[in-house]
Amino acid sequence: MLEERAREALSPEAFAYLAGGAGAESTMRANREAFERRRIIPRVLCDVSERDTSVELFGRRLPAPLLLAPIGVLELARRDGDLLAARAAASEGLPFVFSSQASVPMERCARAMGDGPRWFQLYRGTSDELAESFVRRAEACGCEALVLTLDTTQLGWRVRDLDLAYLPFLYGKGLAQYTSDPVFQGQLESIEVPPSGRPTPAALRALVQIARAHPGSTWRNLVSPRPRAAIRLFLDTFSKPSLDWDDIAFVRGLTELPLVLKGVLHPDDARRALEHGVDGIVVSNHGGRQVDGAIATLDALQPIVEAVGDRIPVLLDSGVRGGADVFKALALGARAVLVGRPYAYALAVAGEEGVRATIRNLVADFDLTLGLAGCASVAELGPERVGEVR
């Protein structure tokens, strides 16, 4: 399995962060169990000699209903991981969603993608100025949609990380969007960092990691307080437990880009999102990383689709592992799906080529499943194509 190959390739800390979920990881299991409960009902004697896997999202025709989900700290999988994954997505004509917690600035990734589609995922945070700066940069980079993640106002109780006492942000990892941002750099001037205490071997190792992660010369960073100040400022501004609907209005007012809310699991929230001028919804439980015991995304999908009707597209994230999963999600009303861990594991195992192969395999698997189930196009998918086994 790809996951096991990634485990062999990664450090224990990196694998735990990428693979782990919240609490006892029951939400991760529920995501997969929900897909397993739905069974495809093939139809026969249908002409599927020519098939169309394409879908349209926000004015762009995509060759397949697939996006690469935003994943933070991809440098844990491979150096310049965001850049490699972005290039792989662009080569296949599919959107790559830049993460706020990226390890490569969005500008560098955008330059490498040519005219490949790209979106930007925003964490609202506590700084209005920083949020606006991120949005302006995303617009300048040619991002075609803004994805506002709602379910990470605090980090979930992730036991694998806790067991290893590891959080990559404390080592300066995953902060490239921040350290490359002019507003963030200006805010750094007011951050005071107390002098380091008596050095221990562990503290020295941490300091070296921080120095390497921060932009610029590693040797200069070792003696500068700025890398540690960046970590402190990030920790002070990232989390916003007070996030509410006024924040949706604030972000909506920043841009004319399509605004997509990621992390919606209740139909009432979907209805309210429509009232706030939202252009799309991603049904997601953050891959099971936030709330242990949360509803599976596939179980939450249909009620949300019914709540919004055809007014805005609904996408699904969390738990997608193969072409049959894509088929089931689209049959139950999703316009497209986001894939996360599979491409992160592929990145760890084989870099850019691994991501490209994973994308191609998923698309080919979906195309074959579509045909074998008796469908010539995505437009033929509907709830009658799947049944539920209890």
List the helices and strands and how they pair.
Blueprint: H1 2-9, H2 12-19, H3 26-37, E1 38-40, E2 55-57, E3 60-62, E4 66-68, H4 81-91, E5 96-98, H5 106-113, E6 118-122, H6 128-140, E7 146-149, H7 159-164, H8 176-179, H9 182-188, H10 201-213, H11 218-223, H12 226-237, H13 245-252, E8 259-264, H14 267-275, E9 280-283, H15 297-308, E10 314-317, H16 323-331, E11 336-339, H17 341-372, E12 386-388
Parallel strand pairs: 4-11, 5-6, 6-7, 7-8, 8-9, 9-10, 10-11
Antiparallel strand pairs: 1-12, 2-3
How would you summarize this macromolecular structure in one to three sentences?
With 390 residues, the chain is an alpha/beta fold.
What are the salient characteristics of this protein?
alpha/beta; eight-stranded parallel beta sheet; two-stranded antiparallel sheet; 17 helices; 46% helix; 12 strands; 390 residues; 12% strand; globular
Descriptive account of the structure:
It is a single chain. By secondary structure, the chain is an alpha/beta fold. It has helices at 2-9, 12-19, 26-37, 81-91, 106-113, 128-140, 159-164, 176-179, 182-188, 201-213, 218-223, 226-237, 245-252, 267-275, 297-308, 323-331, 341-372, and strands spanning 38-40, 55-57, 60-62, 66-68, 96-98, 118-122, 146-149, 259-264, 280-283, 314-317, 336-339, 386-388. Strands 4-11-10-9-8-7-6-5 form an eight-stranded parallel β-sheet. Strands 1-12 form a two-stranded antiparallel sheet. The longest helix is centred in the last third of the chain and has 32 residues, at 341-372. The mean pLDDT is 95.
